């Protein structure tokens, strides 16, 4: 407290005014915090508001897995920052779906965490600042801004990294699933039964893709056409390879051609594309190695090769 008071005193230049501003800031912070908590708790304790939140979240009469008060509180905080989009899915929801978060309240939780993380980081930095010796006011402000920026960007970076990792796992597992699907279809199974069998076989080795395929099978059982269910699969995963498969299967079903033949042709084309992609990455290795060689290897080489000669020259000129 004394450290914060001294910082305000440096800016204001008047000790009495600094104490007054410090007391006012502490009082307003406490009032706002208490009022916020009271409003949130009262809203959660109100049976009507709680029921409306559960209905909006997707819970009906069965509430055995109802969310906790903390989760509902975060959803209420994040709800204030979510844009209301009725005709199209927001970019944030698409990002979260690709990362594996399909909950109806995922967007609210995401924005609530992005809002509360900077406040938490600011609180931690304020507690750590008095422990830093000879800290100037400019450096303190810089650390506070840096902490707020890290708190704001950390959830987005985590979700993006999770999305990238999940997309990579799906992309690696897709060729095996495609081969299994070809075998199942050519053995006499229909497309929905083939998808169900592939999801069961890959439940242990590739749980992400198995879960997506099981969801496709559930949608087909609910009455959604196969092509529409596969389109939703492509939207959930964000993989262009699945979009190409959906297009081919839609044409095959429309024109009455063999689904097994279509899957086999696409599997061969997919293997060829993966081989070409691997060759392209291998061809780029030489170019990418130029920068490590220039900035890391060559300075060390010149230091070892020319360093002794330069030292000898300096010794000779030093004797003169």
UniProtKB/TrEMBL annotation:
Protein species of origin: Pseudomonas saponiphila
Protein name: Tight adherence protein C
Transmembrane segments: 20-44, 111-132, 138-159, 289-314
Keyword Acyltransferase: no
Domain Type II secretion system protein GspF: 178-305
Keywords (A to Z) from UniProt: Cell membrane, Membrane, Transmembrane, Transmembrane helix
Gene Ontology CC entries for this record: plasma membrane
InterPro entries per UniProt: T2SS_GspF_dom (IPR018076)
Membrane topology: Multi-pass membrane protein
